[in-house]
Automatic annotation (TrEMBL):
Residues 32-142 form the PurM-like N-terminal domain. Reaction mechanism of ThiL seems to utilize a direct, inline transfer of the gamma-phosphate of ATP to TMP rather than a phosphorylated enzyme intermediate. It comes from Lysobacter helvus. Mg(2+) 3 binds at residues 34, 79, 211. The gene is thiL. Residues 154-301 form the PurM-like C-terminal domain. This is Thiamine-monophosphate kinase. Mg(2+) 5 binds at residue 214. Keywords: ATP-binding, Kinase, Magnesium, Metal-binding, Nucleotide-binding, Thiamine biosynthesis, Transferase. It comes from the Bacteria.
Amino acid sequence: MSGAGEFDLITRIRARAAAMAEARGDVELGIGDDAAVLRLPAEALLVVATDTLNAGVHFPVETVPADIGWKALAVNLSDLAAMGARPAWATLSLSLPQGDAAWVDAFLDGFLALADQHRVALVGGDTTRGPLSVCVTVHGFVEAERVLRRDAARVGDDVWVSGTLGDAAGALSQWRGGEGVETALRARLDRPTPRVALGRALGGLAHAAIDVSDGLLADLGHVCVASDVGAELEVDALPASEALREAFDAEARRALQATGGDDYELCFTALPAQRDAIVAAAREAGVDVHRIGRIVERRGVVALSGGQPWTSSRAGYTHFR
Ligand code: ADP
Ligand code: MG
C-alpha cells in the first residue's frame, strides 16, 4: 500500500475501537489477534448479516468518507433491525486505492458515531488495496420467539411501514438530474437511520418484516414470495416527508416512494387486532408507522390509487440485470 501501511491503518482503527470493545464486556479479544473471541449470551440466537458498498454502485463516488462509514454500518444494522435483533459486534473489510490515513480517520468518524449509538463494538476486519469497497458484517442477538422472518406474513395481516419513503431515491434523482440536491433528502441518502429500536419492539408482535433497501414494491414482493401470499398496497397512504413533497410533483413522488430504494425503513405485517399495540410500540421506539395495505391470498403485489391499479415505470433496483 502507498501512503500509510496496512499495519499503521489497523493500529489507528484498533485504537479507536478499543473503548466500546472494553465497555461491552463481551469482547474477550478484539482487533489485534488472528480472530476475535466473543462471549455469547446464554438465552439468545446469534444473528449475522453482511453487506458490501462499492464506490459508484452503492454511493456516488464523491460521497464524503464519514458518510460512507455511517452508511456501511447503517445498512447492516438495518438488516438486524428487520430480524428483530439487537446489535452487538461488527467486522469491517476495507479495500482502499491507497493507504490514506486521513480517509480512514474520517470514515471511522461516521462509522463509530453510529456504532456508539447502538453500542456496537468493532472487533475485527481486513485491510487490502484495491478499488474502494467497504464490506461490513454485523452480529446481534434475538430471542427465538422474537425473530422477524420474511416468510411469516398471513392472509388478513395489515401491511405497515415506518418513517417516510422515497427521500433517498429523491436525492439520487436530483443528483442524477444535475440539479442541486435538497439537504434533507441528501441526509436520508447519506445517513440512513436503521430502525433498530422498532425492530426490537416488533419482535413477538409483528408477523413478517423486511427492511426497505431495493424499493417498497420489490421488498414487499420478497415478503409475499417467501410467505406464499400476495399484497394490496394503497399508494396514496405511503408516508412522505415535507422535503419530498416540496421537491417533486405527486406522480414523481409516488414513484419514488413505491419503487425508490435506500430507505432503510421497516416494512412489516401484523394482525389487525394488534393495531393499537403496534402504534404504542412504535411510539416507544420513537418512530412513526403507517398502515399502507393488507396481505391477501392472491399472489403478487398490487398497488392501488383511488381504488384503481397503479403502475410505475420504475422497478426495484437489481444488480446484474
Ligand atoms: P491476519 O493476517 O491474521 O488476517 P491482519 O493483519 O489482516 O491479520 O489483521 C490484524 C488484526 O487487525 C486482526 O485482528 C484483524 O481482525 C484486524 N483488522 C484488520 N483490518 C481491519 C479493519 N479494517 N477493521 C477492523 N479490524 C481490522
Ligand atoms: Mg487479514
